[in-house]
Amino acid sequence: MKINWYPGHMKKTKELLQDQLGLVDIVIEILDARIPCSSQNPQILKIISNKKSLIILNKSDLADESITVEWLNSFRKQNKTAIAVNSIDKKTASKVMLQLQHLYQEKAEQLKKRGRNPRPVRVMIVGVPNVGKSTLINLLAGKKRAQTGDKPGITKGKQWIKIHSTIELLDTPGILWPKFEDELVGIRLAQTGAIKDEILDIEELGLKLLEDLLLLYPQSIQKRYGNFASKEPIDVMKEIALNRGCVLRGFEIDFLRVSNILLDEFRGGKLGRMTLEKPSE
């Protein structure tokens, strides 16, 4: 599956990050807890390398809890501050604020020594499309300040948002990179909805997802769709299609429809809490 995805606004976003980085104290990098490796943009890592940063594993309510713990431990071993959150949980706001205050404490003390009152912490939020940046901002602000949606590419330009007297946030559009050196990275991003479905082969994507889930979470698939006579992914997909009524005229399998069902139910957590990547891999 070849994925080419680098629209003009993403090039502008990369330039925006570079231009605005000098204005901020801390960078929040939001990753998808189901694919922490694939959702970490290598270009962003280069740009923010010298800044204090907070890694947020978002959508942790959809991810395998035990593997999320492995990821948090992995980041901590790299001396990186990382937390797992669900950006629609109200408790998340206080959890993030506490980490930001801790990261800013050293700079605040330096300002006090110079006889200056600490100013609000300036925070930049970055991440791939559809990872939940705007949802997190609205949660922190306590009201809708950033536009949200379930499709990638909602945020189009930078937005400075004052949370309260101590924190100012810079929201940025989701940014991917020009070429996925590892084809699996592109597939993982597509499976979780970071790339628009319109540019993909949905049937191939759905079959690949089913193949992965039969390997990683076979019991969850059986619980959702029933037991299968075959273990081959294509045959299992046919059985799911028949069970869900995804049949065209002449009893031909509607692979597009069943693929969309698989992708939608995975993305929505209906198949259970699942993570597609481990730190050990």
UniProtKB/TrEMBL annotation:
InterPro entries: G_CP_dom, GTP-bd, GTP-bd_ortho_bundle_sf, GTP-bd_ribosome_bgen, GTPase_MTG1, P-loop_NTPase. Pfam families: MMR_HSR1 (PF01926). Keywords: Cytoplasm, GTP-binding, Nucleotide-binding. SUPFAM superfamilies: P-loop containing nucleoside triphosphate hydrolases (SSF52540). GO terms for cellular component: cytoplasm. GO terms for molecular function: GTP binding; GTPase activity. It is found in: Cytoplasm. Residues 14-178 form the CP-type G domain. GTP binds at N58, K59, S60, D61, N86, S87, N130, V131, G132, K133, S134, T135, G174. One of its GO terms (biological process) is translation. Gene3D superfamilies: 1.10.1580.10, P-loop containing nucleotide triphosphate hydrolases (3.40.50.300). NCBIfam families: GTPase_YlqF. Belongs to the TRAFAC class YlqF/YawG GTPase family. MTG1 subfamily. Required for a late step of 50S ribosomal subunit assembly. Has GTPase activity. This is Ribosome biogenesis GTPase A. It comes from Tindallia californiensis.
